[in-house]
Amino acid sequence: MLNITKEQNGGVEFIILEGRLDTNTAPTLEDEIKDSLEGISELVFDLSRLEYISSAGLRVLLTTQKAMNKQGNMVVKNVSPAIMEIFEVTGFSDILTID
Q1: Residue 20's CATH number
Q2: Percent of the chain with pLDDT over 70
Q3: CA 6: distance to chain centroid?
Q4: Among 88, 21, 23, which Cα is nearest to 52's?
Q5: How many domains does the chain have?
Q6: In what helix (H) or strand (E) does residue 90 lie, and over which residues does it extend?
Q7: Which domain range does residue 22 map to?
Q8: Bridge partner residues of 53 (DSSP)
Q9: Which neighbouring-strand residues pair with 76?
C-alpha cells in the first residue's frame, strides 16, 4: 500500500510517499504525477516514510526526472538508509538530486 500526499506552494509541488512503491502502486503514483506537473517549476519528493521501492517505482522516478529536466528541478529528500542503498546499487544516486 502507498499513501500519496500532495501539497503545492507557489510553483513548487511536494509529493510525500508513505508505504511501498512497487509494481502494484507505481501506476497510481504515475497518474498522480501526470496530474501535477503542469506549471510546476520544482518537484520535491519526501521519502521519509517510504519503506520499499521496486524497479517499477524507480522507473516512475526516472520518467518524472526526465520530464522535470525539461521544465525545472526535481529533488528527492529524506531518503532512508535502506532506500539510499537501493539508489546507490542501481546508480540512481547519480541520476537523482538527493538532498
Answers
A1: 3.30.750.24
A2: 100
A3: 11
A4: 21
A5: 1
A6: helix 81-90
A7: 2-95
A8: 21
A9: 45, 98
